[in-house]
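User: Here's a chain of 92 residues. Predict its fold as tokens.
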Amino acid sequence: MAYLDVAAGIDIDVAAMTPVNASGEVLYELGMMYAAGRTVQLDLVLAHKWFNLAAMRGNPDAIRLRREVADEMSAAEIAAAQRAARDWLTTH
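Assistant: Prediction complete.
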């Protein structure tokens, strides 16, 4: 699971805290956070996952960035990101 390392030293489960009805913009920002390694460790699989979910919620920028991230990933990593997105949709 993805955890956010807060300055206070507290680990927060980002996926568990993301509301079920989160907008495409919120999900896009999570993708940006992982794509840039902003406050979390850079993780292209998680970036792809959040961009995929954001695209599904109508964020057009997420479509482009999902494609850009995918260009830097292996087929296995893309499959893992797609599974993670499906899992998130199933559990949320």
